[in-house]
């Protein structure tokens, strides 16, 4: 998949989460660009590490809001976060082992994982938070 293009319809109407989603989309694009442009492995690794660090921050933000407002599917949502982090950690480990990263394979660094999580999990969270006056 090509890098994730941000679209306004991806908004979940919670400002802090939407801003982080836009940054995630940009980071996925930057990693994709580094790989596609043949950047040196260390540069790709640094960008992938930045994506992993920011994803952790983003998930922590969501989890804090879920706990604060009593989101009923907290455990399921956190489990999804853990799985996505494992995927990114595996990609980074593969890159550090100098295994070429790809697109459209098991080590795909395209935006599918961001988009799927956003549309399936975070849309539900956004509606829940909006019902509680969180925007």
General description of the model:
This protein has 135 residues and is an all-alpha fold. It has a single domain, classed as Four Helix Bundle (Hemerythrin (Met), subunit A), CATH 1.20.120.50. Helix content is 70%, strand content 0%. The chain is built from 4 helices and no strands. The chain is elongated. The N and C termini lie far apart (31 Å). About 4% of the residues have low confidence.
The ordered string of helix (H) and strand (E) elements is HHHH
N-to-C CA distance:
31 Å
CATH topology: Four Helix Bundle (Hemerythrin (Met), subunit A)
Strand count, sense and barrel status of the largest sheet are: none
Tell me the β content.
Answer: under 5%
Under the CATH scheme, which class?
Mainly Alpha
Low-confidence stretches: 103-107
Number of distinct beta strands: 0
CATH homologous superfamily?
Hemerythrin-like
Tell me the Rg in angstroms: 15 Å
CATH architecture identity? Up-down Bundle
Count of discrete structural domains: 1
Specify the helix fraction band: 55-70%
**Average pLDDT over all residues:** 87
Which descriptors apply to this entry?
135 residues, mainly alpha, Four Helix Bundle (Hemerythrin (Met), subunit A), 70% helix
Topology:
Elements: H1 15-36, H2 41-69, H3 74-96, H4 112-131
Helix pairs in contact: 1-2, 2-3
